[in-house]
Amino acid sequence: MFHKILIANRGEIAVRVIRACRELGVKMVSVYSKADRDSLHVKLADEAICIGEAPSGESYLNIPAIISAAEIADVEAIHPGYGFLSENTHFAEICESCQIKFIGPKPESIRLAGDKAIARATMQKGGIPVIPGSKGVVGDQEEALKIAKKFGYPVIIKAKAGGGGKGMKVAHNDGKLVNAFLTAQAEAEAAFGNREVYIEKYIKEPRHVEFQILADEHGNIIHLGERDCSIQRRHQKLLEEAPSTSINQKLRRKMGEVAVKAARLIRYENAGTVEFLLDEDSNFYFMEMNTRLQVEHPVTEMLTGIDMVKEQIRIAAGEKLQIRQDEVKWEGAAIECRINAEDPDNNFLPSPGKIETLLLPGGPHVRIDSHIYPGYVIPPYYDSMIAKLIVHGRDRNDAIGIMQRALREMEIGPIKTTISLHQRILNRPRFRQGKVTTQFIESMLASEETQVGKKEGE
Ligand code: MV4
What we know:
Rossmann fold; Dna Ligase, domain 1; D-amino Acid Aminotransferase, Chain A, domain 1; 3 domains; eight-stranded antiparallel sheet; 25% strand; binds ligand MV4
């Protein structure tokens, strides 16, 4: 096992990794920007090193500063958390060349998964179901029209270097396609410095079901089941749950096997997630592979009892997986609500500032992963997520009841948060029925607008 590792992140995930290190008896070093001096990840770590100014480009994305900190602190490994440098092939390579273990997959796996068109082609060649569409990059509008004719409208144009929904365009007919195609190329160029795009058949109202993978460096790969992440707004997940209401045990087994096979195809190591789209007829298609620990990993931890961050560190230290696939057991249901410092009643406007009131829920089956404390000032420079509230119940209804109780106990002020939004989600009949698709939030917000309009006599 490692003696000391560096955590190249901030906020709740840095705290989460510190906790795993502490329990493993591994010393840990935090890095922080000048805006994060008073952060919990600075207080809780064995050592902390300032790496730069507040903007993440000068700190949490500053590779020379992070590598210097790693050298000075004499660590053996770096945990990148999620976001920032966690899926940066170049960073993983630099760690390797400095003989610092990157706690994650090999650079080549990050590169293969990061290029969405290559990932798709690799999976298709390996027999993984992918959404019907172009073989690879579509070069011009004539080719785009041909592809659309072949697969039928609607189609979706996606950036090769994209992911997370950036630079996607849907087209419903030939007339709209050309403009959508050119716009997608221009947006891809602006966002990723790469104008290459590919085309797929558009799946209406899909569900987002992702499988958690663990892979050691000895060729053992297992899956820890799925998470349903359909409840998102503008590609930002808000609430995640497991098990998914849209798959049964038979489909779970099938999709799990496919996810493991997908991981094997890119020689995957460490923790990763295989994202699928599920259509109305329960057809599933590979969408993307995320080569990092995800925000919503606690949902899986609650169901399986496996500490995924400890597993990540053990794997990176060269240990073999201790759990076989047939030993993975899922119990009950878990839900995670992301508490963001945003105003859900004002277009999700960020709401940074000082936390004056803080009442956190507790009691049976309630978990909070957070870096906030009374008096903490949420800086305006970073992601607005300030806490994750995770509950575990005997079944889905039980979990919903516990979550409602926990949300009621929770008080954060005077800043605005998404607590009230989650209460609204949990009260929706469609949510109760488990009828969740990626359109859920949009339709909920739209129908609430009409309700308000009626009440106010508009
Ligand atoms: C799609 C799709 C429908 N059809 N691809 C969004 C994020 C990126 N990973 C891919 N995404 C989608 N790809 C086809 N062929 C719908 C989405 C999509 C979506 C997917 C998962 C979760 C939420 C979403 C919200 C809108 C669109």
